[in-house]
Request: fold
Amino acid sequence: MLSRCGFGSLLFAAAMVLSLNGAQAHDESKYPDWSGQWRRPPGVNNQWEPTKPRGQEGAPLTPEFQAIFEANLKDQAEGGQGTDPTYTCIPDGMPRAMNVIFPMEMIITPNTTYIHIEYLMMFRRIYTDGRPFPEDTDTAFMGYSIGKWVDTDGDGRFDQLQVETRFLKSPRAFDSSGIPLHPDGKTIVHERFYQDKDKPDVLHDEVTTIDNALTRPWTVTKHYNRVRNPIWVEAICSENNDHIKLGKDTYMRSADGLLMPAKKGQRPPDLKYFNAQDARK
Amino acid sequence: MLFRIRRGSVVHAAAIAAAMLMAVADARAFDESKYPDLKGQWDRTAQPRWADAKSAPLTPEYRAIFEENLKDQAAGGQGTDPTFTCVAPGMPRVMNMYAPFEIVVTPRTTHMLMDHIHDSRRIFTDGREWPKEMQPNFNGYSIGTWIDEDGDGRYDVLVVETRGLAGPRSYDSTGLPLHADNETVINERIYLDKADKNTLYDEITVKDHALTRPWTMMKKYVRKPAKQPVWQEAVCAENNPHVVIADEPYMLSADGLLMPAKKDQAPPDLKYFPQSRK
Reply:
Protein backbone atom coordinates (compact mmCIF):
# COMPACT_ATOMS: atom_id res chain seq x y z
CA MET A 1 0.00 0.00 0.00
CA LEU A 2 2.84 2.32 0.83
CA SER A 3 4.24 2.02 -2.70
CA ARG A 4 1.03 3.45 -4.13
CA CYS A 5 1.25 6.60 -2.05
CA GLY A 6 3.04 9.57 -3.40
CA PHE A 7 5.88 11.32 -1.61
CA GLY A 8 3.45 14.18 -1.03
CA SER A 9 1.22 11.85 0.99
CA LEU A 10 4.09 10.98 3.27
CA LEU A 11 5.02 14.61 3.74
CA PHE A 12 1.41 15.48 4.47
CA ALA A 13 1.11 12.65 6.98
CA ALA A 14 4.32 13.68 8.66
CA ALA A 15 3.13 17.27 8.78
CA MET A 16 -0.11 16.18 10.45
CA VAL A 17 1.74 14.20 13.08
CA LEU A 18 4.24 16.99 13.69
CA SER A 19 1.53 19.59 13.99
CA LEU A 20 -0.35 17.48 16.51
CA ASN A 21 2.85 16.82 18.47
CA GLY A 22 3.47 20.52 18.44
CA ALA A 23 -0.01 20.95 19.85
CA GLN A 24 1.25 20.07 23.32
CA ALA A 25 1.80 16.31 23.01
CA HIS A 26 3.92 15.21 25.95
CA ASP A 27 5.91 12.25 24.72
CA GLU A 28 5.95 10.14 27.85
CA SER A 29 8.03 7.52 26.07
CA LYS A 30 11.06 9.81 26.33
CA TYR A 31 10.85 9.62 30.11
CA PRO A 32 11.15 6.64 32.45
CA ASP A 33 7.94 5.17 33.80
CA TRP A 34 8.04 6.06 37.48
CA SER A 35 4.29 5.95 37.97
CA GLY A 36 2.72 4.21 40.94
CA GLN A 37 3.59 4.37 44.59
CA TRP A 38 7.14 4.17 45.92
CA ARG A 39 7.88 2.85 49.40
CA ARG A 40 11.04 2.40 51.42
CA PRO A 41 12.05 -1.27 51.46
CA PRO A 42 11.03 -3.59 54.29
CA GLY A 43 13.53 -3.47 57.14
CA VAL A 44 14.57 0.10 56.44
CA ASN A 45 13.23 2.43 59.07
CA ASN A 46 13.67 6.15 59.06
CA GLN A 47 17.46 6.25 59.36
CA TRP A 48 19.32 8.44 56.86
CA GLU A 49 22.01 5.86 56.01
CA PRO A 50 19.87 2.81 55.19
CA THR A 51 22.71 0.31 55.58
CA LYS A 52 23.43 1.26 59.18
CA PRO A 53 21.40 1.34 62.39
CA ARG A 54 19.70 4.60 63.34
CA GLY A 55 22.00 6.82 65.40
CA GLN A 56 25.14 4.88 64.38
CA GLU A 57 25.33 6.05 60.80
CA GLY A 58 28.81 7.51 60.83
CA ALA A 59 27.81 11.03 59.85
CA PRO A 60 30.99 13.01 59.02
CA LEU A 61 30.10 15.79 61.47
CA THR A 62 32.48 18.57 62.45
CA PRO A 63 33.60 18.35 66.11
CA GLU A 64 31.16 21.16 66.99
CA PHE A 65 28.19 19.36 65.45
CA GLN A 66 29.30 15.97 66.75
CA ALA A 67 29.07 17.46 70.25
CA ILE A 68 25.60 18.84 69.44
CA PHE A 69 24.57 15.40 68.17
CA GLU A 70 25.80 13.64 71.29
CA ALA A 71 24.03 16.09 73.58
CA ASN A 72 20.91 15.44 71.50
CA LEU A 73 21.24 11.67 72.00
CA LYS A 74 21.48 12.21 75.75
CA ASP A 75 18.38 14.41 75.71
CA GLN A 76 16.48 11.84 73.66
CA ALA A 77 17.51 9.06 76.08
CA GLU A 78 15.94 11.13 78.87
CA GLY A 79 12.67 11.52 76.96
CA GLY A 80 13.39 14.79 75.13
CA GLN A 81 13.44 15.40 71.40
CA GLY A 82 17.02 16.62 71.13
CA THR A 83 17.73 18.19 67.73
CA ASP A 84 14.89 16.36 65.94
CA PRO A 85 12.52 19.24 65.19
CA THR A 86 9.65 17.36 63.52
CA TYR A 87 7.75 16.32 66.64
CA THR A 88 5.72 19.53 66.33
CA CYS A 89 4.65 18.39 62.82
CA ILE A 90 6.90 20.68 60.84
CA PRO A 91 8.10 18.99 57.63
CA ASP A 92 11.21 16.83 57.51
CA GLY A 93 12.63 19.11 54.82
CA MET A 94 15.47 18.15 52.53
CA PRO A 95 17.27 15.85 52.47
CA ARG A 96 15.39 13.99 55.25
CA ALA A 97 12.14 13.89 53.25
CA MET A 98 13.79 11.31 51.01
CA ASN A 99 13.64 8.83 53.90
CA VAL A 100 10.08 8.49 52.52
CA ILE A 101 8.46 7.60 55.82
CA PHE A 102 5.08 7.33 54.10
CA PRO A 103 4.66 6.46 50.40
CA MET A 104 5.80 8.73 47.57
CA GLU A 105 4.43 9.54 44.13
CA MET A 106 6.46 11.00 41.28
CA ILE A 107 4.62 12.94 38.60
CA ILE A 108 6.72 13.67 35.53
CA THR A 109 5.83 16.52 33.19
CA PRO A 110 8.16 18.17 30.67
CA ASN A 111 8.75 21.30 32.77
CA THR A 112 8.44 20.00 36.31
CA THR A 113 8.75 16.71 38.15
CA TYR A 114 6.61 16.66 41.27
CA ILE A 115 7.38 14.50 44.29
CA HIS A 116 4.50 14.05 46.66
CA ILE A 117 5.17 12.28 49.95
CA GLU A 118 2.14 11.38 52.05
CA TYR A 119 3.56 12.67 55.31
CA LEU A 120 3.37 16.20 56.64
CA MET A 121 2.23 17.01 53.08
CA MET A 122 5.80 17.03 51.90
CA PHE A 123 5.81 18.16 48.37
CA ARG A 124 8.67 18.96 46.01
CA ARG A 125 8.68 20.72 42.67
CA ILE A 126 11.79 19.91 40.65
CA TYR A 127 11.97 22.38 37.77
CA THR A 128 13.30 20.81 34.57
CA ASP A 129 12.50 23.73 32.26
CA GLY A 130 16.09 24.89 32.03
CA ARG A 131 15.78 27.79 34.45
CA PRO A 132 18.76 28.91 36.54
CA PHE A 133 18.53 29.26 40.33
CA PRO A 134 16.93 32.58 41.31
CA GLU A 135 19.30 35.10 42.83
CA ASP A 136 17.12 35.21 45.90
CA THR A 137 13.96 33.48 47.00
CA ASP A 138 12.16 32.55 50.22
CA THR A 139 13.69 29.60 51.99
CA ALA A 140 11.58 26.47 52.40
CA PHE A 141 11.95 23.19 54.28
CA MET A 142 11.82 21.40 50.92
CA GLY A 143 14.07 24.01 49.29
CA TYR A 144 14.16 25.09 45.65
CA SER A 145 15.07 22.29 43.27
CA ILE A 146 16.33 22.39 39.71
CA GLY A 147 16.63 19.17 37.76
CA LYS A 148 17.94 17.89 34.48
CA TRP A 149 16.95 14.75 32.64
CA VAL A 150 19.89 12.78 31.28
CA ASP A 151 20.07 9.94 28.76
CA THR A 152 23.12 8.19 30.22
CA ASP A 153 23.11 5.17 27.88
CA GLY A 154 22.33 7.08 24.69
CA ASP A 155 19.24 5.05 23.79
CA GLY A 156 17.18 8.17 23.10
CA ARG A 157 15.31 7.91 26.35
CA PHE A 158 16.00 9.75 29.61
CA ASP A 159 16.99 7.40 32.41
CA GLN A 160 18.29 9.68 35.14
CA LEU A 161 17.04 12.79 36.87
CA GLN A 162 19.82 14.90 38.34
CA VAL A 163 18.69 17.45 40.92
CA GLU A 164 20.24 20.24 42.91
CA THR A 165 18.39 21.76 45.88
CA ARG A 166 19.20 25.05 47.61
CA PHE A 167 17.43 27.76 49.67
CA LEU A 168 16.66 25.48 52.60
CA LYS A 169 14.98 26.51 55.81
CA SER A 170 15.96 25.37 59.31
CA PRO A 171 15.69 23.57 61.66
CA ARG A 172 16.29 20.23 59.95
CA ALA A 173 17.88 16.94 60.94
CA PHE A 174 18.83 13.96 58.77
CA ASP A 175 16.53 11.64 60.69
CA SER A 176 14.81 11.12 64.01
CA SER A 177 18.12 10.34 65.74
CA GLY A 178 18.68 14.08 65.46
CA ILE A 179 21.81 14.13 63.23
CA PRO A 180 21.89 17.90 62.76
CA LEU A 181 22.28 20.06 59.70
CA HIS A 182 23.84 23.48 60.09
CA PRO A 183 21.31 26.19 61.00
CA ASP A 184 22.90 28.59 58.47
CA GLY A 185 20.57 27.14 55.83
CA LYS A 186 23.41 26.84 53.31
CA THR A 187 22.84 23.14 52.66
CA ILE A 188 23.15 22.03 49.04
CA VAL A 189 21.69 18.66 48.12
CA HIS A 190 22.59 16.80 44.92
CA GLU A 191 20.54 13.83 43.80
CA ARG A 192 20.62 11.24 41.03
CA PHE A 193 17.32 9.41 40.63
CA TYR A 194 17.42 6.31 38.45
CA GLN A 195 15.56 3.08 38.02
CA ASP A 196 17.33 -0.20 38.69
CA LYS A 197 18.41 -1.65 35.33
CA ASP A 198 17.34 -5.18 36.26
CA LYS A 199 14.39 -4.39 38.51
CA PRO A 200 12.06 -1.77 37.04
CA ASP A 201 10.11 -1.70 40.29
CA VAL A 202 13.13 -0.44 42.22
CA LEU A 203 14.12 3.23 42.19
CA HIS A 204 17.37 4.61 43.57
CA ASP A 205 18.16 8.09 44.80
CA GLU A 206 21.84 8.80 45.34
CA VAL A 207 21.83 11.80 47.66
CA THR A 208 24.91 13.89 48.37
CA THR A 209 24.58 16.51 51.10
CA ILE A 210 26.97 19.43 51.30
CA ASP A 211 26.52 21.23 54.63
CA ASN A 212 28.64 23.27 57.01
CA ALA A 213 27.92 20.80 59.82
CA LEU A 214 29.82 18.16 57.80
CA THR A 215 33.55 17.76 57.22
CA ARG A 216 32.94 16.51 53.66
CA PRO A 217 30.02 15.86 51.29
CA TRP A 218 28.02 12.89 52.61
CA THR A 219 26.58 10.50 50.04
CA VAL A 220 23.99 7.83 50.75
CA THR A 221 21.84 5.88 48.31
CA LYS A 222 18.16 5.42 49.08
CA HIS A 223 16.09 2.65 47.52
CA TYR A 224 12.35 2.56 46.96
CA ASN A 225 10.06 -0.29 45.90
CA ARG A 226 7.10 0.28 43.60
CA VAL A 227 3.47 -0.63 44.29
CA ARG A 228 1.69 -0.52 40.93
CA ASN A 229 -1.95 -0.26 42.03
CA PRO A 230 -1.65 1.67 45.22
CA ILE A 231 -4.00 2.80 47.92
CA TRP A 232 -3.14 6.27 49.15
CA VAL A 233 -3.77 6.89 52.82
CA GLU A 234 -3.65 10.39 54.23
CA ALA A 235 -1.06 10.85 56.97
CA ILE A 236 -1.87 13.91 59.05
CA CYS A 237 0.71 14.45 61.75
CA SER A 238 -1.33 17.03 63.67
CA GLU A 239 -4.33 14.75 63.96
CA ASN A 240 -2.99 12.66 66.81
CA ASN A 241 0.25 14.33 67.82
CA ASP A 242 1.21 13.40 71.38
CA HIS A 243 3.91 16.04 71.68
CA ILE A 244 3.31 19.55 72.97
CA LYS A 245 5.96 22.24 73.04
CA LEU A 246 5.49 24.99 75.62
CA GLY A 247 8.26 27.56 75.83
CA LYS A 248 11.48 25.60 75.50
CA ASP A 249 10.07 22.44 77.04
CA THR A 250 8.41 19.46 75.45
CA TYR A 251 5.58 17.59 77.15
CA MET A 252 3.45 14.61 76.26
CA ARG A 253 -0.29 14.23 75.99
CA SER A 254 -1.77 11.46 78.13
CA ALA A 255 -4.47 9.06 76.92
CA ASP A 256 -7.09 11.37 78.47
CA GLY A 257 -5.60 14.36 76.65
CA LEU A 258 -3.95 16.00 79.65
CA LEU A 259 -0.40 17.26 79.85
CA MET A 260 2.12 14.88 81.32
CA PRO A 261 5.89 14.92 81.72
CA ALA A 262 8.09 13.74 78.85
CA LYS A 263 11.06 13.30 81.16
CA LYS A 264 11.52 11.87 84.62
CA GLY A 265 11.14 14.58 87.25
CA GLN A 266 10.05 17.17 84.66
CA ARG A 267 8.42 20.22 86.19
CA PRO A 268 4.96 21.31 85.07
CA PRO A 269 4.64 24.21 82.63
CA ASP A 270 4.61 27.78 83.82
CA LEU A 271 0.98 28.91 84.08
CA LYS A 272 1.74 32.55 84.89
CA TYR A 273 -0.81 33.81 82.37
CA PHE A 274 -3.69 32.21 84.26
CA ASN A 275 -5.31 33.83 87.26
CA ALA A 276 -3.93 32.22 90.42
CA GLN A 277 -7.41 31.66 91.83
CA ASP A 278 -8.30 29.57 88.76
CA ALA A 279 -5.58 27.00 89.38
CA ARG A 280 -7.09 23.55 89.34
CA LYS A 281 -6.79 21.40 92.42
CA MET B 1 1.73 22.44 -0.57
CA LEU B 2 -1.56 20.88 0.44
CA PHE B 3 -3.34 21.84 -2.79
CA ARG B 4 -0.84 19.86 -4.87
CA ILE B 5 -1.77 16.54 -3.28
CA ARG B 6 -4.26 14.49 -5.29
CA ARG B 7 -7.54 13.49 -3.61
CA GLY B 8 -6.61 9.83 -3.36
CA SER B 9 -3.30 10.74 -1.86
CA VAL B 10 -5.00 12.70 0.87
CA VAL B 11 -6.91 9.57 1.88
CA HIS B 12 -3.69 7.58 1.91
CA ALA B 13 -1.93 10.32 3.81
CA ALA B 14 -4.69 10.40 6.39
CA ALA B 15 -4.43 6.61 6.82
CA ILE B 16 -0.66 6.82 7.25
CA ALA B 17 -1.01 9.74 9.64
CA ALA B 18 -3.57 7.80 11.67
CA ALA B 19 -1.22 4.80 11.83
CA MET B 20 1.67 7.05 12.82
CA LEU B 21 -0.45 8.75 15.45
CA MET B 22 -1.51 5.41 16.89
CA ALA B 23 2.12 4.34 17.05
CA VAL B 24 2.99 7.54 18.87
CA ALA B 25 0.03 7.01 21.19
CA ASP B 26 1.17 3.47 21.89
CA ALA B 27 4.53 4.90 22.83
CA ARG B 28 2.75 6.62 25.74
CA ALA B 29 2.42 10.02 24.10
CA PHE B 30 0.10 12.05 26.25
CA ASP B 31 -1.85 14.28 23.86
CA GLU B 32 -2.24 17.36 26.02
CA SER B 33 -4.16 19.09 23.25
CA LYS B 34 -7.19 16.94 24.14
CA TYR B 35 -7.36 18.57 27.56
CA PRO B 36 -7.95 22.16 28.58
CA ASP B 37 -4.79 24.10 29.36
CA LEU B 38 -4.93 24.39 33.15
CA LYS B 39 -1.23 25.05 33.65
CA GLY B 40 0.07 27.87 35.82
CA GLN B 41 -0.80 29.27 39.19
CA TRP B 42 -4.45 29.70 40.16
CA ASP B 43 -5.73 31.80 43.01
CA ARG B 44 -9.07 32.48 44.64
CA THR B 45 -11.05 35.60 43.79
CA ALA B 46 -12.70 36.12 47.17
CA GLN B 47 -12.12 35.60 50.87
CA PRO B 48 -11.89 31.93 51.81
CA ARG B 49 -15.51 31.72 52.93
CA TRP B 50 -17.89 29.10 51.64
CA ALA B 51 -20.96 31.30 51.55
CA ASP B 52 -23.07 33.61 53.64
CA ALA B 53 -23.90 31.29 56.52
CA LYS B 54 -27.49 32.54 56.61
CA SER B 55 -28.07 30.94 53.21
CA ALA B 56 -26.87 27.52 54.36
CA PRO B 57 -29.76 25.00 54.21
CA LEU B 58 -28.85 23.45 57.55
CA THR B 59 -31.20 21.11 59.36
CA PRO B 60 -32.59 22.56 62.61
CA GLU B 61 -30.20 20.31 64.58
CA TYR B 62 -27.15 21.59 62.71
CA ARG B 63 -28.40 25.18 62.69
CA ALA B 64 -28.41 24.96 66.50
CA ILE B 65 -24.87 23.46 66.47
CA PHE B 66 -23.74 26.29 64.21
CA GLU B 67 -25.30 28.98 66.44
CA GLU B 68 -23.67 27.44 69.51
CA ASN B 69 -20.35 27.46 67.63
CA LEU B 70 -20.72 31.17 66.90
CA LYS B 71 -21.29 31.84 70.58
CA ASP B 72 -18.16 29.86 71.47
CA GLN B 73 -16.10 31.67 68.84
CA ALA B 74 -17.30 35.03 70.16
CA ALA B 75 -16.05 33.98 73.59
CA GLY B 76 -12.59 33.15 72.18
CA GLY B 77 -13.13 29.46 71.41
CA GLN B 78 -12.90 27.70 68.08
CA GLY B 79 -16.45 26.32 67.97
CA THR B 80 -16.87 23.73 65.22
CA ASP B 81 -13.90 24.92 63.15
CA PRO B 82 -11.48 22.01 63.57
CA THR B 83 -8.47 23.26 61.60
CA PHE B 84 -6.86 25.43 64.28
CA THR B 85 -4.78 22.42 65.36
CA CYS B 86 -3.54 22.07 61.76
CA VAL B 87 -5.72 19.12 60.84
CA ALA B 88 -6.63 19.16 57.16
CA PRO B 89 -9.62 21.29 56.10
CA GLY B 90 -10.83 18.44 53.89
CA MET B 91 -13.44 18.53 51.17
CA PRO B 92 -15.22 20.66 50.18
CA ARG B 93 -13.46 23.34 52.26
CA VAL B 94 -10.09 23.01 50.50
CA MET B 95 -11.77 24.44 47.40
CA ASN B 96 -11.90 27.80 49.22
CA MET B 97 -8.22 27.82 48.17
CA TYR B 98 -6.27 29.12 51.13
CA ALA B 99 -3.12 29.43 49.02
CA PRO B 100 -2.42 29.54 45.27
CA PHE B 101 -2.74 26.16 43.60
CA GLU B 102 -1.63 24.20 40.58
CA ILE B 103 -3.51 21.67 38.50
CA VAL B 104 -1.49 18.91 36.86
CA VAL B 105 -3.44 16.89 34.32
CA THR B 106 -2.16 13.44 33.46
CA PRO B 107 -4.14 10.81 31.53
CA ARG B 108 -4.94 8.78 34.62
CA THR B 109 -5.04 11.34 37.42
CA THR B 110 -5.66 15.05 37.75
CA HIS B 111 -3.68 16.43 40.65
CA MET B 112 -4.74 19.57 42.50
CA LEU B 113 -1.68 20.77 44.34
CA MET B 114 -2.34 23.23 47.12
CA ASP B 115 0.37 24.38 49.46
CA HIS B 116 -1.69 24.66 52.62
CA ILE B 117 -2.21 22.26 55.53
CA HIS B 118 -2.84 19.02 53.71
CA ASP B 119 -5.08 20.16 50.91
CA SER B 120 -3.74 18.49 47.76
CA ARG B 121 -6.14 16.20 45.91
CA ARG B 122 -5.90 13.26 43.53
CA ILE B 123 -8.80 12.93 41.12
CA PHE B 124 -8.61 9.53 39.42
CA THR B 125 -9.68 9.70 35.76
CA ASP B 126 -8.57 6.20 34.75
CA GLY B 127 -12.08 4.79 34.61
CA ARG B 128 -11.87 2.97 37.92
CA GLU B 129 -14.91 1.95 39.94
CA TRP B 130 -15.49 3.00 43.53
CA PRO B 131 -13.53 0.69 45.82
CA LYS B 132 -15.65 -1.60 47.96
CA GLU B 133 -14.00 -0.24 51.06
CA MET B 134 -12.42 3.17 51.46
CA GLN B 135 -10.13 4.37 54.19
CA PRO B 136 -11.74 7.71 55.12
CA ASN B 137 -9.64 10.75 54.19
CA PHE B 138 -10.23 14.44 54.89
CA ASN B 139 -10.07 15.03 51.14
CA GLY B 140 -12.00 11.88 50.40
CA TYR B 141 -11.66 9.65 47.36
CA SER B 142 -12.34 11.41 44.08
CA ILE B 143 -13.23 9.88 40.73
CA GLY B 144 -13.42 12.15 37.70
CA THR B 145 -14.51 11.99 34.08
CA TRP B 146 -13.36 14.34 31.35
CA ILE B 147 -16.25 15.46 29.14
CA ASP B 148 -16.26 17.05 25.69
CA GLU B 149 -19.50 18.97 26.13
CA ASP B 150 -19.40 21.01 22.94
CA GLY B 151 -18.24 18.14 20.74
CA ASP B 152 -15.16 19.93 19.40
CA GLY B 153 -12.90 16.93 20.05
CA ARG B 154 -11.40 18.44 23.14
CA TYR B 155 -12.37 17.92 26.77
CA ASP B 156 -13.77 21.00 28.44
CA VAL B 157 -15.31 19.86 31.74
CA LEU B 158 -13.95 17.67 34.51
CA VAL B 159 -16.86 16.07 36.36
CA VAL B 160 -15.87 14.78 39.80
CA GLU B 161 -17.52 12.87 42.59
CA THR B 162 -15.94 12.62 46.03
CA ARG B 163 -16.85 10.15 48.77
CA GLY B 164 -15.10 8.37 51.62
CA LEU B 165 -14.59 11.45 53.77
CA ALA B 166 -13.12 11.75 57.26
CA GLY B 167 -14.08 14.37 59.82
CA PRO B 168 -14.49 16.66 61.60
CA ARG B 169 -14.90 19.18 58.79
CA SER B 170 -16.53 22.56 58.41
CA TYR B 171 -17.06 24.67 55.29
CA ASP B 172 -14.88 27.52 56.52
CA SER B 173 -13.55 29.20 59.64
CA THR B 174 -17.03 30.35 60.69
CA GLY B 175 -17.52 26.74 61.75
CA LEU B 176 -20.41 26.03 59.38
CA PRO B 177 -20.59 22.29 60.08
CA LEU B 178 -20.82 19.17 57.95
CA HIS B 179 -22.52 16.13 59.45
CA ALA B 180 -20.47 14.07 61.87
CA ASP B 181 -21.45 10.85 60.03
CA ASN B 182 -19.03 11.85 57.20
CA GLU B 183 -21.39 10.47 54.58
CA THR B 184 -20.94 13.62 52.53
CA VAL B 185 -21.01 13.24 48.75
CA ILE B 186 -19.57 16.08 46.68
CA ASN B 187 -20.12 16.60 42.97
CA GLU B 188 -18.06 19.08 41.01
CA ARG B 189 -17.93 20.46 37.51
CA ILE B 190 -14.59 22.11 36.84
CA TYR B 191 -14.24 24.16 33.64
CA LEU B 192 -12.60 27.19 32.09
CA ASP B 193 -14.58 30.30 31.23
CA LYS B 194 -15.35 30.11 27.51
CA ALA B 195 -14.53 33.78 27.00
CA ASP B 196 -11.62 34.05 29.40
CA LYS B 197 -9.23 31.11 29.60
CA ASN B 198 -7.63 32.61 32.68
CA THR B 199 -10.78 32.11 34.72
CA LEU B 200 -11.68 28.72 36.15
CA TYR B 201 -14.95 27.69 37.73
CA ASP B 202 -15.77 24.89 40.12
CA GLU B 203 -19.48 24.28 40.55
CA ILE B 204 -19.69 22.31 43.77
CA THR B 205 -22.77 20.50 45.02
CA VAL B 206 -22.63 19.15 48.55
CA LYS B 207 -24.97 16.42 49.73
CA ASP B 208 -24.73 16.02 53.48
CA HIS B 209 -27.03 14.95 56.30
CA ALA B 210 -26.53 18.31 58.01
CA LEU B 211 -28.34 19.89 55.01
CA THR B 212 -32.03 19.85 54.13
CA ARG B 213 -31.18 19.68 50.39
CA PRO B 214 -28.11 19.53 48.10
CA TRP B 215 -26.27 22.84 48.34
CA THR B 216 -24.57 24.19 45.22
CA MET B 217 -21.88 26.82 45.29
CA MET B 218 -19.80 28.30 42.48
CA LYS B 219 -16.13 28.94 43.14
CA LYS B 220 -14.11 31.12 40.81
CA TYR B 221 -10.34 31.20 40.39
CA VAL B 222 -8.04 33.31 38.26
CA ARG B 223 -4.76 32.37 36.62
CA LYS B 224 -1.74 34.46 37.57
CA PRO B 225 0.17 35.75 34.55
CA ALA B 226 3.66 34.76 35.78
CA LYS B 227 5.31 32.23 33.46
CA GLN B 228 7.40 30.91 36.32
CA PRO B 229 5.19 31.52 39.37
CA VAL B 230 6.64 31.68 42.85
CA TRP B 231 5.35 28.90 45.08
CA GLN B 232 5.57 29.53 48.80
CA GLU B 233 5.70 26.74 51.32
CA ALA B 234 2.93 27.01 53.92
CA VAL B 235 3.54 25.10 57.13
CA CYS B 236 0.61 25.43 59.53
CA ALA B 237 2.44 23.76 62.41
CA GLU B 238 5.42 26.10 62.20
CA ASN B 239 3.95 29.01 64.11
CA ASN B 240 0.60 27.77 65.30
CA PRO B 241 -0.42 29.62 68.48
CA HIS B 242 -3.28 27.20 69.25
CA VAL B 243 -2.96 24.24 71.63
CA VAL B 244 -5.61 21.77 72.70
CA ILE B 245 -5.31 20.07 76.07
CA ALA B 246 -8.04 17.61 77.02
CA ASP B 247 -10.39 19.05 74.37
CA GLU B 248 -9.94 22.57 75.72
CA PRO B 249 -8.32 25.12 73.40
CA TYR B 250 -5.60 27.38 74.76
CA MET B 251 -3.26 29.89 73.18
CA LEU B 252 0.52 30.20 73.23
CA SER B 253 1.91 33.53 74.35
CA ALA B 254 4.73 35.31 72.52
CA ASP B 255 7.18 33.58 74.90
CA GLY B 256 5.64 30.20 74.07
CA LEU B 257 3.80 29.67 77.36
CA LEU B 258 0.22 28.55 77.78
CA MET B 259 -2.32 31.30 78.16
CA PRO B 260 -6.11 31.41 78.22
CA ALA B 261 -8.03 31.57 74.95
CA LYS B 262 -11.15 32.74 76.75
CA LYS B 263 -11.79 35.19 79.54
CA ASP B 264 -11.38 33.57 82.96
CA GLN B 265 -10.46 30.22 81.40
CA ALA B 266 -9.13 27.79 83.97
CA PRO B 267 -5.62 26.39 83.45
CA PRO B 268 -5.23 22.75 82.43
CA ASP B 269 -5.28 19.98 84.97
CA LEU B 270 -1.70 19.11 85.89
CA LYS B 271 -2.49 15.94 87.82
CA TYR B 272 0.26 13.97 86.08
CA PHE B 273 2.93 16.23 87.53
CA PRO B 274 3.84 15.12 91.02
CA GLN B 275 5.19 18.51 92.00
CA SER B 276 3.57 21.82 91.22
CA ARG B 277 5.41 24.89 90.01
CA LYS B 278 5.78 27.69 92.56
